[in-house]
Specification:
Number of strands of chain A: 11
Order of helices and strands of chain A: EEHHEHEEEHEHEEEE
Number of helices of chain A: 5
Largest sheet of chain A: 9 strands, mixed
Radius of gyration of chain A: 17 Å
Helix content of chain A: 10-25%
Largest interface: A-B, 29 and 29 residues
Shape of chain A: globular
Oligomer: homodimer
Strand order of the largest sheet of chain A: 5-6-4-3-7-1-8-11-10
């Protein structure tokens, strides 16, 4: 099963404008994630103590459960766009011990050997397209699910191809006014996904879509 | 108090593409309103018997309560765009007895005498801009609230000017893929409006914003 979750502003943006290595979420993009940072369920895997428990907690727990592999786009993995630059090596945003602890597959146009990190995370770079990456992630996940981490362009491709089985839109009641929209260029077809559950939580409303 | 409510798709559209006299909500636009048509609270004021009662009922009741006057844009009032055409008279979508039963103010660039309908509804056409229309509506409403009915362009103007005191976004879990977006060209400023309540209901999630 391919599952996907993303935070989206009321005006449909999942990243602010002017994304860069210094500002990976774009201007104002961090506002989309303020609901998650105070949560214990987010802090613990990042090595931080304490934190809140609220209506978002079981939603985040369900997102993280049974994930055997993660898929993401090159933009989410980060670094300067284009070919990998040996003079400016980029191993992701997450430091030596990324919080995944399972295989991660990165969609890219530029081949690169697998990158083994501490704590069980290996980044594998897939140049064969979205279906090849999903196949590889499914095989690596075994009995677990595959989690699609984003960003917007990777999500648009998997949604548009009808490959997403479950989707959680965490709708944040702010406007960004500009940036990258999730639902752009994928038409009017949710490919069988339908709203199955709504969870109202502090500073966010989770809309959970699945195949009913 | 100026209150506003609108149905919006997951991808931010409040009307589909190709709006016309024959298809006032645009292609696919009727999907935005499927949640309200079965409700008794919607059917009764339209002279229809029966209907459902669900979690949307109190939300609709609250929308309709204490309204002393309604504001709307020319596009919502309808008819062919441009100057009023005596050869194709247009008195709105709602028949001889519109369901408002109070004064309605229509924003337009084209002057026209007030239009008195049955059942207490009079359409007054205001050419002096959004503030003049709001002043007139407030005066007519007396102790009641002013309801901003839409459409998108009128709502954008009142939201952008910071004149809206309460807003209910009824988020419908469908994609339209094209059409008229509510949050377009009004930047990243909700002008003091914040999410105060979320109501999950069949086929819709109501997001209620107010000044906390």
């Amino acid at each position: 099963m391919l599952r996907f979750g993303i935070s989206m502003s009321l005006d449909g943006y999942v990243a602010g404008p002017d994304q860069s290595v210094d500002n990976p979420l774009g201007v104002g993009g961090e506002d989309l994630h303020q609901w998650v940072f105070p949560l214990e369920v987010w802090r613990a895997p990042h090595g931080l103590e304490g934190g809140e428990v609220n209506e978002s907690t079981p939603v985040v727990q369900a997102m993280l459960a049974h994930v055997g592999a993660t898929l993401m786009g090159r933009n989410m993995f980060g670094g300067h766009p284009g070919p990998w630059d040996a003079k400016r090596p980029w191993n992701g945003w997450w430091g030596d011990t990324p919080p995944f602890h399972h295989p991660v597959f990165v969609l890219t146009h530029h081949a690169r050997p697998p990158l083994k990190m501490k704590g069980g995370t290996t980044f594998t770079f897939v140049t064969g397209g979205i279906e090849a990456a999903l196949d590889a992630a499914r095989q690596a996940a075994g009995d677990g699910d595959v989690w699609l981490g984003g960003g917007a362009k990777a999500a648009q491709q998997y949604l548009g191809a009808g490959l997403v089985d479950e989707m959680t839109i965490s709708l944040v009641p702010v406007l960004l006014g500009a940036g990258e929209r999730l639902f752009e260029g994928i038409g009017d077809d949710l490919h069988g996904l339908a709203l199955v559950r709504t969870v109202a939580a502090p500073n966010v409303t989770h809309l959970i879509f699945a195949r009913p």
